[in-house]
Amino acid sequence: MRPVTELVVPHVRLRSITKRFGPTLALDRVDLDIVSGSVHGLVGENGAGKSTLGKVLAGVVMPTSGSIAVCGEPVVFRSPRQALASGIAMISQELSLVPGRTVLDNVYLGVEHTVGPFVSRASMRRSYGALAERTGIIVDPDAFVHSLSVAEQQLVEILRALVRDARLIVFDEPTARLSSNASANLLGVVKDLATSGTTVLLVSHFLQPVLDVCDTVTVLRDGALVRTSPTTGDTVATLLQSMIARTLTQSFPTKTRPPADAPRRLEVCALSQGSTLDNVSLHVRTGEIVAVAGLVGAGRSTLLRSIFGAVTPSAGRVLIDGQDLKLGRPNASIDAGMAFIPESRRDDGLIMMRSVRENTALPHLDRFSVAGVLDQREERMSVRGSIDRTGVRAASVETSVDLLSGGNQQKVMFSRWLAENPRMLIADEPTRGVDPGAKNTIHNIIVELALHGSAVLFVSSDLEEVIGLAHRVLVMREGRLVAEFDGFDTSDLEVARAAFGSDQCRPSPKL
User: Fold this and answer.
1) Rounded to two decimals, what is the model's pTM?
2) pLDDT in tens, 334-344
3) Cα–chain-centroid distance for residue 354?
4) Short-list 271, 427, 264, CA closest to 338
5) pLDDT, tens digit, for every residue of 337-366?
6) SS3 at position 178
7) Other Cβ atoms closer than 10 A to 158
8) N or C: which terminus of the chain carries fewer CB neighbours within 10 A?
């Protein structure tokens, strides 16, 4: 590992980088120096701001405020093209190759070698061969991209960046979709890039590879920089401690443990879905609140959507009160008393240009209809009762939901299901992007539902919320359940260790 000193002129200097997405503060006055020719790691919990900072550096998003200097020269990036003009490229989890074209076509797309008005494939082949020899990255130039593995496609992305004279490459979770061997090979390529003079910013939630490959590591927490230090003095445990150590600021309703003999309301048996879910089994008892924790990409959302029927699993069973549900049929789940709060209220939850009344009553129109005719008076009475329970602030039930704040929009989604007390509530990130007041209201709704006999299964990236609400905590990693904790006797550090795959993650056996 090369020591990083203040005497080295940084390749990139970021100062007071702040980024807001509406009311959400994603980055809070972040200062960061990245030394030329180094591998710089960027770690943090889900939602810490890692990817956002990488995107700011690569011109994908503009900061709300702050400054960037490249090799000492101030720059302003309004697009990835402008960042690339300064020698900065980004390789994201979602690759941007053209599947139906060859490797050679993709590497030189937009920067083709020409002779007069004609593309010179012979010249590009010679250049490609020299690049492969210089980097040691070998991929058949005539292979079609759709025939390559994900690991090979990432190598093509690297070659494409180098052809465009990228001198700093941002890798955003490059090993998230790779096998262990493919991950090791890619990280070897990253080290070789740095050895040859290319600067690398490695955004990752895999902590041991960060320690193995990076010279320096920066920890972000809640959008703010916690520390930057050489990796030689760090371990997985010290990184985790920096990532999650915080003063508990949220207050949660008192948790009441459900009776030990409470019947199982939900049973999930050997649920699988491609490579995203692998033989997942779990249960939730009547009156119990169970949280599913894990990293982005662990399969948490796919699990909830498969249980509800928004995704059809390839194998497995889902039972409510001992009765099998028809998989892939949301209507059947609703008829069985299941309620679902999706991760994205705008994309999957609400009809933004319709009213509070219409959005709230949507799953229950048959209840308000006689011979196909909607009884609007009964509908309005029911909707008003529901939004009163959730504290939705709107001028009237006819107010369009796109005019409401994010917190009130989220409460409308909960109002939808309170018209009929659900037997089972499934919620994916129930308080994401809402203000503290709305968050407190939603926490109270969840606890109240459980106290009145509903079973609750929710996903949250907020470990404080997971520990504060859940009676039990399940942890997913790479599509599998890997750990279970008692929500009354665990810490966010223990849950984080399980999610990140630390060897110290296993809970003590119960006596």
Assistant:
1) 0.69
2) 999 999 999 88
3) 28
4) 427
5) 999 999 888 888 888 888 888 888 887 766
6) coil
7) 24
8) C
